[in-house]
């Protein structure tokens, strides 16, 4: 269901097969992205019609559409994979398994689309470079199409404070 934040009233109900685990309005305001079960859907944000629906090779916890041209989207799953797909065809471009932090719950692109952040069950958020700034993924930097460099890693729980380690270095310091 979609609500009007000003009035608190339901505006529209979007039909899905499974409970929705995430919904996101694209930065340009054109699409609403939802993830439910093994499906990622893109809805017209003005008329609420279904624009695209893709069956995923996994149970999807979250999905995010790349800003600007919206030609890619990312999806995080319960099996600790972060997937990158082509928005227009639904074809998988790359998949990266992240084994040390647990299932991937939220995923989100930065405002400019040059990086994205998956969040993990253990409270870790990793911010990865998505490639060059020309709206294309830079396949030359890493065999799986990602730069492979962590810009910032945030660990800890919000209620206990945050610890930020730079350039992929993991500090064993505890939060106060």
From TrEMBL:
A GO biological process of this protein is:
spliceosomal snRNP assembly
**One GO MF term:** RNA binding
Which positions carry the signal peptide feature in this UniProt record?
A: none
An example of a Gene Ontology cellular component annotation for this protein is:
SMN complex
Name its species.
Herrania umbratica
Check the record and name the PANTHER family matching this protein. Answer: EUKARYOTIC TRANSLATION INITIATION FACTOR 3 SUBUNIT I, SERINE-THREONINE KINASE RECEPTOR-ASSOCIATED PROTEIN-LIKE
Instruction: Report the Pfam families cross-referenced here.
Output: WD40
Family statement drawn from the similarity comment of this UniProt entry:
Belongs to the WD repeat STRAP family.
Q: What are the UniProt keywords, alphabetically?
A: Repeat, WD repeat
Protein name per UniProt: Serine-threonine kinase receptor-associated protein
